[in-house]
Write a structure and sequence with these properties.
This protein is mainly β and about 475 residues long. It folds into two domains: about 240 residues, YmcC-like fold; about 190 residues, YmcC-like fold (Beta Barrel). It is about 5% helix and about 45% strand. It contains four helices and 23 strands. It has a twelve-stranded antiparallel β-sheet. Strands 17-16-15-14-13-23-22-21-20-19-18 form an eleven-stranded antiparallel β-sheet. The longest helix has 7 residues. The radius of gyration is 26 Å and the shape is elongated. The N terminus is likely disordered.
């Protein structure tokens, strides 16, 4: 009953995973996995398992009994095991033992493997042939069904959606489209007083197995930061009499924590558009550059932004790729074609020939210049990072410096008044004063960049404001 290996993972998705705290224990997360962590779930199915069934879930360790793999958890990879043994379930409750393996990767929590006994014979078959690696006869199977990579996307921000697959790829897999609805207060037996939970709504589809309607439907999962999933409700397809599976957390030794902010300061929302005005009294004193942008492609936190000229001394068409992962918002490609009579000062680095160096032609060139990330995954005042004198960004830009999240500021631009996150970068490009200086950027939640001021080392200042 072991799942197929995960194949064909795009290297871009395997960004830097969350770090551990100083003593080597896992950092706070949506699914903690310290070696002493325990959970107890109770689940029912309105048709196929009407007897409330409790399962105890623990973290596998080398000293654990089977079915654990015999490895200890690391800060980013771990295995959970569940069992109905010793849970004093009533007669008729299905017996179950199994494991599920997870890895915290750059795009969130991924399911890498699972293993269990066969589901009860009265359950709908979720494979085309036996033996079958697909089952929904446990609490955690209902969590991971249709959402293997990732099971929970991060950073979990307003507007987050992702598509993925689940189940045994050797037979009939399932697929899902998942939406972060937002946070809400929820009570479950483990927490009779309301706790804050992130609500994920999944449209799950399976096609090709006798039990397709059972493997399809709407699943809602409530995740509590510092605890894990506390409730799952799976409304299976098949009409008004279709089964409903419900799993709730009965007890745990984990403590709910305040989740990180879900404010999205650089939304990659398909169809989002805007218009910027860029002024620089030294370079183009008579007429500003006005350019529009649109988010044209989006998939699992990665998107493409197109830019074109509206008016002013620069004619341009540009395309930029951005991705949001746990290591922050990063720019991974930029391509522009332009014509202008403006005589821009040169940019470096000196290690590249002039025709291979970046140039400033759009506000996104000004924004992305230097080093990644543009923003941390969950930005907060005081966050600071530096540009290293090595690696991909340094080869492209030859820039070192420091970026700091300053905090929130109320700001007014032609497009309106925004409560904006202020991010300041000090940039140094040796031998090129136009590529050096101080850049301050203002980002509004669910809108993105609304203002940028780049005080170049040559004495000129580029100011970008959102017009609409």
């Amino acid at each position: 009953m072991r799942s197929a290996a995960l194949l064909g993972l795009v290297a871009l998705l395997l960004a830097i995973a969350p770090s551990a705290v100083g003593d080597g224990t896992p950092a706070p997360s949506w699914l903690p996995h310290s070696t002493d962590a325990t959970w107890e779930y109770q689940w029912t199915d309105s048709v196929y398992n009407t007897t409330p069934t409790k399962e105890k879930v623990t973290v596998c360790q080398a000293s654990s009994a089977a079915p654990c793999s015999g490895t200890d958890p690391t800060p980013t990879a771990f295995q959970l095991t569940w069992t109905t043994d010793g849970e004093n379930n009533p007669a008729g409750a299905p017996a179950s033992r199994g494991t599920v393996s997870f890895a915290e990767q750059g795009l969130g929590l991924a399911t890498t493997d699972w293993n269990s006994n066969l589901p009860p014979s009265n359950f709908p078959a979720l494979c085309a042939s036996a033996p079958c690696g697909n089952s929904l006869a446990s609490a955690y199977y209902n969590v991971i069904w249709g959402t293997r990579f990732p099971t929970l996307f991060e950073p979990l921000l307003q507007g987050t959606t992702w598509s993925t697959t689940g189940g045994d790829t050797r037979d009939v897999p399932s697929s899902s489209t998942n939406t972060y609805v937002g946070t809400e207060q929820i009570t479950v037996p483990a927490f009779p007083n309301p706790v804050t939970a992130a609500k994920i709504r999944s449209q799950v589809t399976q096609a090709g197995a006798p039990g397709d309607p059972y493997g399809s439907g709407i699943r809602t999962t409530w995740w509590v930061y510092g605890v894990g999933p506390v409730k799952v409700e799976f409304d299976h397809a098949g009409g008004s009499s279709a089964p409903i599976t419900t799993a709730v957390l009965v007890s745990t030794n984990q403590t709910p924590q305040t989740p990180p902010s879900d404010a999205n300061y650089f939304p990659m929302k398909l169809g989002l558009t805007g218009t910027f005005r860029w002024t620089n009294t030294k370079l183009f004193p008579k007429k500003p550059v006005v350019e529009s942008y649109s988010v044209d492609q989006v998939s699992n936190g990665t998107g493409q932004i197109s830019v074109k000229d509206v008016s002013g001394p620069i004619k341009v068409n540009g395309s930029y790729g951005f991705t949001t992962r746990l290591d922050g918002v990063t720019n991974f490609f930029a391509s522009t074609s332009s014509k202008t009579l403006v005589k821009f000062p040169p940019l470096g680095p000196s290690s590249l020939p002039p025709d291979q160096r970046r140039h400033f032609r759009t506000p996104f060139d000004l924004l992305t210049f230097g080093f990644n990330p543009m923003l941390p995954a969950y930005p907060a005042a005081g966050n600071t990072w530096q540009g290293a004198a090595s690696g991909r960004d340094y080869q492209i830009y030859g820039v070192t410096g420091t970026t700091t999240v300053v905090g929130m500021q109320r700001i007014k631009v032609p497009a309106g008044t925004f409560n904006a996150l202020v991010v300041r970068s000090t940039l140094k490009q040796p031998g090129f004063p136009f590529g050096s200086g101080v850049r301050t950027s203002w980002f509004a939640a669910n809108r993105g960049l609304v203002k940028l001021v780049f005080k170049h080392g040559d004495g000129s200042t580029s100011t970008v404001e959102l017009l609409k």
